[in-house]
Amino acid sequence: MMVLPSRHRFIRTWIAAIPTAGVLLTSFVVSVDMDENFRFPKELLVRGEAILLLVLGIIVWIFTNRALPTWRRDLVLLMPLLAVAWTAVTTITSLHPTLSRMTLLWVAANAIIFLAAYITARSRSLGSIYAVLAAAMVNAVLAICQESRVWNPFASKEYIDSGAIAPHLFTSGFIGNPDDLGAYMVGAAIAAAALIVARKRVQLGAIVAMAVIVGGLAATQSITAIAATIIGILVVAATRSVRAVVIVAVASLAIAICALVLIRPLRNRMKSYGPLLRELRSGSQSIDLFERLSSNRATPILAAWSMFSERPLLGVGPGCFGYEYYFRKMRVERLHPDLLRSGTANWNFGETHCDHLQTLAVAGIPAYLIFIMSPVLVAIRSLQLRSDATDVRSAFARCCGPGLAVSFLALTLFQFPLELAAPTAMFVFLAATVSGWSQQCLESSK
User: Is the pTM higher than 0.90?
Assistant: First the structure.
């Protein structure tokens, strides 16, 4: 890992602080003057952050006369570079290169932020994790207020009650919509769990953060985000002991039961899965069943598979799923006429709502291997640390890395956080910080 000379510590401090500040700002920045109040301003912020980090990085490289890090020896550093390189290749071969160039810039921006956060991780303390959790807590509290109709800064009570839009969709925090907010909360919940498990002493601050974030997750009613969080926390607990897994499993079950009892919309939603499960047990294989199990997203899922089947190596091109969707939609509906009765039959999906399939559809098998291996390498790097590590950052990294990786892979099965600035910023920051602290500890132990 590259380390800056002591005389340039002030630059290193700034570069180390920018990724933390980026997560905090993307957690709150919104615009009231744009058609897209939440997502687009956050995307602009991420691009600006990447440009600033790139400029500072070039200045450091020029004036310190330091060699670049040894990429070949560090697979964690290599993965974002491979992601940018393959995105560039598939942009060239894209069916719509102009659309793909924007995605290439998005991938490059996040790669720059990851590299900066990773290289400067040793300059950050555990306080940066608590700062990120504080931002997530603010969003969680706002989500609870919005869901309970106590206060919503983005819509009046009269408009919410008018029924023009389903009231639950106004549960957005500062992130966007319930699913976006749920995806953003997953990484924060895993980090809070890791802080609790990593230290033998009771971590009151982390426990409070976890409670508030879990409350925010319950308010979003995002089943995928809740499931990914539970799976990730169980993995975090498994890095400590079997006893910790049992405690977390019992606590998760108790919280789930309380949420179902206290939150009627969540209870009604879970009840709707009962008939579907009975049909599955009876051996039903109808496309209608698949449609209901996927929450009316069977068509985009099958459309994505169609794109991948036609171009399995290169895909249709980064950022091209939405443009190609309608043509595949008509083909899918001809093969499965029952989908014409879907509640989303007249929708033109811009995303698959499954980053696994969308990665295959737009960039092919090599991109999917990078997609899978990136979180796996974060987990492997963390698990290389000693289980009895006394350094607080090392203990946190060992607990957080595997849970973060597993929760990310679970979340992306039915959501698309990689296309959303706030969830991506959270996962990129945590993954880079955890990997950087793990690498620092491994280097110091040699």
Answer: yes
